Amino acid sequence: MSATDAILPAPTPENPQQLLAEVETLGGRLQLVRDRIGRIIFGQQEVVNLTLVTLLAGGHVLLIGVPGLAKTRLVETLGTVLGLAEKRIQCTPDLMPADILGSEVLEESETGRRSFRFIPGPVFSQLLMADEINRASPRTQSALLQAMQEHRVSVAGHYHPLPQPFHVLATQNPLEQEGTYPLPEAQLDRFLMQIDVSYPDRDAERRMMIATTGVDAEKAVTVLTPTDLQAAQRLVRRIPIGESVVEGILDLVRAGRPETSDIPEVRTHVAWGPGPRASQSLMLAARAQAVLDGRLSPSLDDVVALAKPILRHRMALNFAARADGVTIDDVIDRLCAPLL
Questions:
Q1: Given this model, what pLDDT does residue 14 score?
Q2: Residue 310 lies in a domain
Q3: 265: CATH
Q4: Helices (H), the chain
Q5: What span, in angstroms and rounded, lies between the C-alpha atoms of 192 and 190?
Q6: Contacts of 114 (CB under 8 A, 6+ apart)
Q7: Under a CB-based contact definition with an 8 Å cutoff, are residues 128 and 122 in contact?
Q8: How many angstroms separate the CA atoms of 323 and 63, rounded?
Q9: pLDDT at 63
Q10: Quick one: pLDDT at residue 28?
Q11: Among 209, 231, 256, which residue terminates a domain?
């Protein structure tokens, strides 16, 4: 044993009772968060749940849905309920990186001395909404990629750290594809989840219609603070996870790669499969789902429930799959079958 090894402290084992108490307390507060959001966002319980799981895991979300499904309102509501500083960017083809990151301006003091001063852009927020992100040019998308991955930006050779916590919630319209720039695989992989937002059911749409067209509309109320969210994110990483769940995640992700899969459908229909970041995302998201439900440890059911939003943007089908009418959700269902 080297001298360096000798001075390293031994890891402190978690007290199960104390950890369970912390999880139950946080679970109760998160239930209040869901309740407050549910008073404003109707018929999107699954979307709200997955978005909260992503935030607890410390990740970013890509929301895909047609206009009018409250994607923008969800981000605004989350910012208020979680006490986060929220800003919005409307992505357009002429949007430049400086419009997101900020820029340096030359100033002259009273003494005549000239110097550059950095003016932060909207990326310097805790909850950034990038509306219609696929309308931004690849150059602008790559600038946002660095912020998402490193939580800092580089302007004129100087690094500027972003506020903590920092999360990007981007939206994408699946219908209007003219004048858009599809997100590259590298950027898609930075999103912990891709959440497909569908139409609400009839009852939810009825409640929405009545609640939002009256005189007194429900308003968002702050429930947590950024410090509370960061504490919750640290707690998620302390949650124990069973060996069977770890092996299940590995089996699921590795089975999605044509090079290593034993599943004929994957070798036939998948062009490329999920990388190691998918395994990390599933591990964190499963823990976050357990905390959101007030449970001490995740299960294989959590892994199966989270597989589609975590894997669907990390896999691509080949021409044979499209010709046979096979969808990416069909392939993921096949991957999850051994875990059920």
A1: 66
A2: yes
A3: 1.10.8.80
A4: 3-7, 16-38, 45-56, 71-81, 97-101, 138-150, 185-188, 202-212, 226-238, 243-255, 264-269, 276-292, 300-311, 319-323, 328-336
A5: 6
A6: 106, 107, 108
A7: yes
A8: 27
A9: 92
A10: 87
A11: 209
Q: Which residues of the chain have pLDDT under 70?
A: 1-14, 175-179
Kindly list the distances between the CA atom of residue 212 and the CA atoms of 65, 207, 215, 219, in Å, as whole numbers in the listed order.
Answer: 21, 8, 8, 11
Q: How many residues does the chain have?
A: 340
- Assigned domain for 314 exists: yes
Integer Cα distance of 5 and 220 in angstroms: 51
Residue type, 207: R
- Whole-number CA gyration radius for the chain: 22
- What angle is formed at CA 246 by the lines to CA 244 and CA 249, rounded to 5 degrees? 105
Q: What are the structure tokens assigned to 212, written together?
A: 């939002």
199 occurs within a structural domain: yes
- Number of alpha carbons in the 13 Å side-chain half-sphere of residue 116: 9
| pLDDT computed for residue 339 by the predictor | 87
**What Å distances lie between residue 143 and 98, 101, 133, 154, 187, CA to CA?**
9, 8, 12, 9, 10
The DSSP string of 259-294 is TT---HHHHHHEEE---HHHHHHHHHHHHHHHHHTT
Number of domains in the chain: 2
Tell me how many degrees the CA angle 103-108-109 measures, rounded to the nearest 5: 125
Give me the pLDDT at residue 7, please.
Answer: 46
Question: Domain check: are 43 and 171 in the same one?
Answer: yes
Q: What is the pLDDT of residue 172?
A: 86
